[in-house]
Amino acid sequence: MFEWLTEEMNRIRSRKFHHVDGPASTELRLAVESCDFPIPPSYKHFVLQFGNAELYRNGSNYYVTVFASPNDSTTDSGERYLHFGRTWTSNAFFKESLLASGEETPVFEAFQQSFRKTADTFEDWLKTKCDSARKRFKKKEWVAIEKGPSPFTDHEQAIVEARKQFRWRVIGVSPNEDLRFEIHNGSATTLPYLSVGVRGKLRPPKNGPLNGGAFLPIASIRPGETKVVEFDCYKKYIAPEGTEVFALPDPGPEDREQYWEFRT
Predict the structure, then answer these.
(1) H or E element: which one contains 42?
(2) How many other CB atoms sit within 10 Å of the CB of residue 93?
(3) Which of 14, 93, 8 lies closest to 58, judged by CA?
(4) Omega before residue 204 within 30° of 0, cis
(5) d(CA 215, CA 11)
(6) Which of 146, 147, 148, 240 has a beta carbon 3.0–4.6 Å from 173's, enabling a disulfide?
(7) Nearest Cα to 65, choosing from 133, 10, 124?
């Protein structure tokens, strides 16, 4: 059913451009197939084949996302929906009142200023959104995506190893609501920045959860030193007490543009 996506994924050498869980385990497959809830067949097929999926990476974001487990959502009027995915401009839903066992169902999307039906089936919705996402990349960019990134140079690999030696923790909030970080440089060199992840709940809630990052300026922290750095971590959208800062995984060659450690 989704052969076109499998073929595309097989051509692409950029490891994180399409990020999927992979085929469902035997236990998960049994649970999904025995579920009495009327999940649309094309969506069920996708979940069993790919699981959670983030497709068409652009920077640290993805243009198309599908959840393996949809979330319940209720409108102000009491209408119940299943939130199963999102794009770069919308959130996608099934209307519970239209679900029927073994039958496909329309897809509705919530945009910033509207809520409307946008596809007759999940498969139609996914194909349309993926086609649209693919067109956002220029021909030269797509060739580079299929080819994959070049390996790290010795200098870049040294940066990867150095960032592993930095230790940090959030120690409070400054008067202007920036977060305060205590950072220790345990490496033998200096780095311009330290990239960390930031997540929390946006205000207003209808905009959905935020999952982003911050680049902490650490060029002044010499080997063996510990200093306090203050940084704005989306304070316009998230109250400091509602912000969670977390360590990012070690970067790979495809992450050069997202990790500020590689910048001068």
Answers:
(1) helix 41-50
(2) 24
(3) 14
(4) yes
(5) 33
(6) 240
(7) 133
